[in-house]
Each structure stands twice: as structure tokens, then as C-alpha cells.
């Protein structure tokens, strides 16, 4: 068993002002995405300025934050937020949905593309390799908050979380950091280094995120207010990932079929 590192969720307190690690992780994810996007900006579109890129990152970040919060409210705990709507604003306590954030990003991307003459999938293919930076940072934030821990386990790296009772558990946040953050970043960054048919990078993102998240859900404790939805093991996270996996496969197949079709450019 490994000791859980007791890290104060508040990174910095100045009088009544408190800066939480959870919020800082979002800033790290957004800043890291901007830096890496700027490295590929010329290959994406030589006519784009850093200012236009900053606008894109800003609106995508808004989609992540607003979509992630609203997605959690709708998918995971609607009754609690209907009973006390002010809880929606307590984002420092956690409660963000990746799938809600993804919908927010898609809407922001569609709107931004319409304004700047880019197709939805052109922008999504550009954005997809950047997303794992924020995902990985967010999972570190979950770990510091001692939330979203895994099932009771006797593996040597199990930890006793201060909010998870006296028994050691899987550090499932770190599994997700390794898979959704590190592994997914390496896969997408390597794959997107060469020209790919439009939609293929987006498809790879959807496929591998869905697979990684589906796998980790087997050792992660579901939200208490939902529990398991079916078969004694199916979680809301897995239900939401199934369409991602199938949609990712479909996008990849369509992308390469379009590329090989006569008279069709990738």
C-alpha cells in the first residue's frame, strides 16, 4: 500500500481569496494546449495569427468549462442541483463531466469555424491532440481533491483516501491521468504528425478516449447518487463512452474511404 500524499486542495490563500489546485489544473491544461497549438499553427493554416489562435483557445476553454459543468448537472446529479441551484457555481469542489465538456467544445468549434471559414472537422482534428493535456491535468486535480477514487483493492499501489473510508483503494485518478492524459496525448501527437484524411484524428481521439475511460470505469467507484446502471457493473461513464467508441471507429472508416474515393480529397 502507498501512502496518500496529503495535499491541501487550496494552493494559495490571500485573505478570503483562495486559489484551488483544481482550478489551477484547468489553467495548466488551457495554457499547455495554447503552447502546443502555436507550434502546429503554421502547418494548420499559415494565414492564421497567434491572436486568432488565442480566440479559438478561449472559446474552446469556455466550452469545456460551461459544458463540463452543465454536463455533470444533467448527466450525474440533476435532482441535487434542482434542489439547490447555487451549487452549480461551486466548481472548486469538483463536479465536471468530460462528455458535457466535449459537447461544449464541439458547439464552440462549430460556431468558431463558421465565423472563420473552417469546417467543423478541420478544427476538431487540430484541437483533438491538445485535449489530453487538459484531461491529464484535470485528473491530477481530482487526485488532489481526493475524489473519484477507485474500488477497494489489495494491489501494492492502493491508497487510503481521506474521503474514501479506512480501506485502501485503486488510485483510479492516476490511471486516468496515465491513459487519458499521457497515453492518449502520445497516440494523437504521433498520429497527427503526418497528414491524415479529415475526420481521422477526431476519430482516433473518440475511439481511444472511449476505450481508456471504459476500461478504467471497471475499477472506479461510480457516483453514489447513480451507482451502477445495469448488469451490476455498467456505469454512466461507460454508457456515455460507448457512442464515442462506435463514433470514433465510424469516423476513421469514413475518413479513409473518402480519401480513396475517386475525385475526393482528404
TrEMBL record:
Listed Pfam families: LGT
EC number: 2.5.1.145
InterPro entries registered for this protein in UniProt: Lgt
Cellular compartments annotated: Cell membrane
Protein's membrane topology: Multi-pass membrane protein
PANTHER family: PHOSPHATIDYLGLYCEROL--PROLIPOPROTEIN DIACYLGLYCERYL TRANSFERASE (PTHR30589:SF0), PROLIPOPROTEIN DIACYLGLYCERYL TRANSFERASE (PTHR30589)
Function comment: Catalyzes the transfer of the diacylglyceryl group from phosphatidylglycerol to the sulfhydryl group of the N-terminal cysteine of a prolipoprotein, the first step in the formation of mature lipoproteins.
Family note: Belongs to the Lgt family.
Full protein name: Phosphatidylglycerol--prolipoprotein diacylglyceryl transferase
Organism: Zestomonas insulae
Gene coding for it: lgt
